[in-house]
Amino acid sequence: MNDYLPHREPMLMVDKIIEMNSEYVETIFKIREDNIFVQNGFFVEAGLIENAAQTCSSIVAKGFYVDENNCDKEEVNVVGFISALKSLKIHALVLVGDTIKNRAALVSTFVTDDYTLCTMKCETFLGERLILEGEINLFIQETK
Q: Which segment of the chain is annotated as a signal peptide (predicted)?
């Protein structure tokens, strides 16, 4: 299922998509010592934001990877990036070895022939503790 993410190592910040439909996604990610966003044993703010954005992108990016019959397309390349942080609160950092869970919901989407823009509400948890919350805008486009 990670094939619905427009990211690859070393920038892949989602281990598994647990649940996904057209408006909601839930993922998990274990923080490893060799992650590029780990500093002094902590997964820093930029990593938490990237992890949340990748979780969010999977909902919209899936439309580029799957056809109208829900069959996987061949040879698809998608690029995605954060176009705006509408709101963001980081309550705590997590440590190497921690596994975080992300939940994201689609707030709005704008689709053209060339790209998709979307606004997503996202939350990140360590166990039951809220680590990150906010709304982000994403730009996602298939590259030829």
A: none
> Would you tell me how many other CB atoms lie within 10 Å of the CB of residue 18?
13
Q: What is the mean pLDDT of the chain?
A: 85
Residue the block writes with tokens 């680590």: 131
Number of domains comprising the chain = 1
Residues sharing a CB contact under 8 Å with residue 75, sequence separation 6 or more, in sequence order? none
CATH assignment of the domain containing 109: 3.10.129.10
**How do beta strands 116-126 and 129-143 pair?**
antiparallel
Domain residues for the domain of 10 are 2-143
Q: Map 67-101 to HEC letters.
A: CCCCCECCCCEEEEEEEEEEEEEECCCEECCCEEE
Structure tokens at 127: 């166990």
pLDDT band, residue 18 (cuts 50/70/90)? very high
